[in-house]
Amino acid sequence: MFDYIKGTVTYINPEYVVIENNGIGYQVFTPNPYVFSIDEQPKTVYTYQYVREDVIALYGFASREQKDLFMKLISVSGIGPKGGLAILASGNPAQVVQAVEEEDEKFLVKFPGVGKKTARQMILDLKGKLHDIVPDAVPSLFADLDAQEVKSQSSEALDEAIEALKVLGYAEREIKKIVPALMKETMTTDQYIKEALKRLLKQ
């Protein structure tokens, strides 16, 4: 129903952003809300409306390619919108496409909610059907924000990143393993999420 929304971001939390357009605030669930920043510059977010008996939700993406990949992911039995967001939050769709094409189940099961059965289903359903997802056309979901946060804000940024990882479905025990390394760095929330996901996918 909605192809995209162009408006200003007025609110950000670990699960979604609010985009205001003509006085209406749209709640949009995204892979990494902290890619966005609250400012007056209008943003274009490509949206997918998800409708079930008890749920109507908007999911938003930085490009049509990200949106297309999300739609293909949730077409796989066993992958819902939350799982699709967690996979896209890795920031590297090319890796996901490569894993599917090479039948790399070991890589795919690293994502929250993806077990061997779902990984196998992803391969069966998507192999050979992702050729139109051109990696070079898919901008990183972790585009660097201006690093203006000072060290005193670093702890708050890390806390926000941890909450965002929990929303994506990562277990506390997994997160705790990487926190000590993250605490040594001073980053924005977005950068913490990017680094955390890199480490989680290597565990």
Summarize the entry for a quick read.
The protein is α+β, with helices and mostly antiparallel strands and 203 residues long. The chain has helices at 64-74, 81-88, 93-101, 105-108, 116-126, 154-168, 172-183, 189-202; strands spanning 4-12, 16-21, 24-29, 43-52, 55-61. One of its GO terms (molecular function) is four-way junction DNA binding.
> On the 0-100 scale, what is the average pLDDT?
85
Q: Identify the CATH class of the largest domain.
A: Mainly Alpha
User: Rg from C-alpha positions?
Assistant: 17 Å
In DSSP terms (H or I, runs of 4 or more residues), the helix count works out at: 8
Anisotropy-based shape: globular
Uncertain spans, ≥5 residues at pLDDT below 50? Answer: 134-152
CATH architecture classification name of the largest domain: Orthogonal Bundle
Sheet/helix structural class: alpha+beta
The CATH topology assignment of the largest domain is DNA polymerase, domain 1
**Helical residues, percent:** 40-55%
Can you walk through the features of this model?
The chain is of the alpha+beta class. It folds into 3 domains: 4-61, OB fold (Dihydrolipoamide Acetyltransferase, E2P) (Beta Barrel), CATH 2.40.50; 64-137, Orthogonal Bundle (DNA polymerase, domain 1), CATH 1.10.150.20; 151-202, no CATH class. It contains 8 helices and 5 strands. It has helices at residues 64-74, 81-88, 93-101, 105-108, 116-126, 154-168, 172-183, 189-202, and strands spanning 4-12, 16-21, 24-29, 43-52, 55-61. A 5-stranded mixed β-barrel has the order 1-2-3-5-4. Helix 6 (154-168) packs antiparallel against helix 7 (172-183), helix 6 packs across helix 8 and helix 7 packs across helix 8 (189-202). The protein starts with a strand and ends with a helix. The relative contact order is 0.13. The model is unreliable at 134-152 (pLDDT under 50). Residues 153-203 are annotated as: Domain III. InterPro entries: DNA_helicase_Holl-junc_RuvA_I, Hlx-hairpin-Hlx_DNA-bd_motif, NA-bd_OB-fold, RuvA, RuvA_2-like, RuvA_C, RuvA_C_sf.
